[in-house]
Amino acid sequence: MMDSNEEVWDKILDVNVKAAFLLTKLVVPHMEKRGGGSVVFVSSVAGYQPMQGLGPYSVSKTALLGLTRALAPELAHSNIRVNCVAPGVIKTRFSSALWQNEDVVEEFKKQLCIKRLGQPQEVGGVIAFLCSEEASYITGETITVTGGMGCRL
Prior knowledge:
Mean pLDDT: 93
Number of helices: 5
Structural class: mainly alpha
Strand order of the largest sheet: 1-2-3
Largest sheet: 3 strands, parallel
Distance between the termini: 26 Å
Shape: globular
């Protein structure tokens, strides 16, 4: 992490944190006109359990956990719920460096109750739930989608 330069930090924080906030700021007036809505940030298990070699990424994902908690009470008066999803290792193009290496996959599986990697639709289903009426009493929360990886109390 100490080898990361300022450009790396700026890029990661701009994409993962600043963009999430600025997009929320742009959409909130439209949600208010509609009488409410739901914002769901996508963090990562790395926000709870920093991963070796992914320091700036992990810090940016921790920041999204804080952004969720900070915005939820501020937007609740407008009937806008703010929640977050923190996926574990999900089989996507972004994580291909992890899941294409069988040794790495086997090491990760040791940390999981469900002994397989997650699929994108499993995260999408949680996001869909958080945007639904069934989740209308949930705000300021982060749901981990990790296959049972122990990452928080």
